[in-house]
Amino acid sequence: MAGTVTGARRRRLGLRGDERAALLFLLPWLVGLVAFLLVPLVWGIWISLTDEQIVKVGEFVGLGNYQEILTDDPLFQQALGVTLRWIVLTTPLFMVTGLALALLLNQRLPGMFVFRTILFVPSVLSGVAVAVLWIVLLNGDLGAVNQLLRVVGVADPPNWLRDPGWAMPAVAVMGLWGIGGSAIIWLAGLQNIPPHLYEAAAIDGAGEWAKFRNITIPMLSATMFFVLINLLVDALLVFAPIFIVSGGTQTGGPANSLLFLMYYIYRKALVEGDLGYAAALAWILTVVGATIVWLAFRFERRVYYQAGAEG
Amino acid sequence: MTREAVARREPGGSVQPGGVVRPAAVDRPLRPRTGRIVHAAIVYGLLLVLTAFILLPIGWMVTAALKPDTAIIFTFPPEFVPTEFFHWQTFADALFDEDEPYLRYVANTTFLILVNMTFAVVSNSLIAYAFARLRFRGRDRLFAVVIATMLLPAPVLLIPQFLLFFQIGWYNTYLPLTIPTLAGNAFFIFLLRQYMRTIPRELDEAARMDGAGHWTIYRRIILPLTAPALTVVAVFTFLGVWNDFFGPLLYLSDGDLYTVPVALATQVSRVGTEWNKLMAANLIAVVPPLVLYFVAQKQLIGGIASVGLKG
């Protein structure tokens, strides 16, 4: 038996016609996989175990970086807190508003195409341009937002991006401006629900709420999960608005209230040049991310509704 | 008309009152005409409020950019539509500024877009062809590796990749921002492979009878027929490169090499910014994606929706 397998393998060692072609077609991908992904991945683990700096080659320090991050780094605590607070604050907000907007855009009324086009506009713009625009609009003294708030009678509107308590809500407003992006995904999910389900429910005398609760929500569970995972991954990578808001200073927003984990890694690596420490931070960020996504998967298993079985 | 025929005209089919087909006898007493009008009024009202939320900031930006240096930018109440000033010179000032010539940044970014678009279209289609059409050992396992690379956490690759490019002398050049594109992108490979699999194999076989090799089949048959999917790749690459901030921020230190987002981020961090010029520069950053969006809306929305559905 073993002999036959070895024999067969030996015979198959020579490249057949298709295999030589495949090697050529896949060559750029294979080289890239090794050079840009696998080597950096392994090297990244090694760097995180050294005190590598931009200006000097590192020496092995074992788990020293990890130990310092987890036990003796108040800024890491701050960054972790900021990131988790952002997730708790914005995930439900963005999920509900995105779905609500998609439900509006899904109405069979004339002109929906125009609204859909306009509401998606911010999603194609660069995060930098959006942040530049909004820091001007949210300027505490002169910004258009506070001018409008004063017109409608708010005597003392918040100093948004300069106030540690309001900085995160201000960034969330920038996020809401781009909510059309996830609304498009929700809309695709809504339009995939077979209409006969609603017809059957209507014949049974179901009201709008009952149809939404018992048809729309279960049939959207795959979309919901996809949007959720995207929001969680995005939360771990928040960077451009924080860079713009901080305006080149050392802190992440007022009193570090916007020190997201990704921004902290950037500062450690490229501003302070502490590459080994930053590499260890990146691995911890990955573990945090994997844990959150794993929790989302566990949660999903409880609510997931197999659309295929019904549709 | 049969119920199915009506239903097919209602792809929206969600919580729309009056939209779902019901026996007329049930429909009339429950949904009187006024109810439908009220419903439409609420939907349009909400959508108009949201549209204002999207468009007013853009209007404010245009108004500010069209003001001369002498005019007040932060008026009370804020102006969202240009009425008094149409000082187009501000755009010329931003484009030909002595210290921060945006024309140069636009040219730099355009160069990066053209190179990356070419690289992305060529390499991703080659790789996808191998996975869609060639028969070789371990193909499915390799394709699973392609999908798995989508899950690799970007932050942990960041520092070793930076060190790698730094040490081989690619820092402060466009090489780190272009060469990795040749290695393909997992999502594009997936998209193109799925698309190529829908092209009938009879076409390949007919060509093979005429003596065509894989290169000819790829070049003469598959590539032209994949054009719609390749357009999606090109559109996403354009947006990705034009809006990319992190890559250029990391790898470019020479101001002459800056792309538009990096130039904007540096300009905004300076004290005493001229707001009209900053808003003009911001509009320069915003207009190309907007134009592309209006031209290629179908590809963009279709691409995003397909991600959502397959995810």
Q: Can you characterise this structure?
A:
The complex is a heterodimer of chains A (311) and B (311). In chain A, 71% of the residues lie in helices and 0% in strands. Chain A is built from 16 helices and no strands. In chain A, α4 (74-105) runs parallel beside α8 (167-177), α4 crosses α9 and α14 packs antiparallel against α15 (275-303). In chain A, 41% of the residues are buried. Chain B is mainly α and 311 residues long. Chain B has two domains: 24-85, no CATH class; 102-310, MetI-like (MetI-like fold, Orthogonal Bundle). Chain B has helices spanning 3-8, 24-30, 33-65, 89-95, 102-133, 139-149, 154-167, 175-178, 186-197, 201-209, 214-225, 227-243, 246-251, 260-268, 275-295, 297-310. The radius of gyration of chain B is 26 Å and the shape is globular. In chain B, 38% of the residues are buried. The chains are: A mainly alpha (311), B mainly alpha (311). The interface between A and B is large, with 109 and 110 residues.
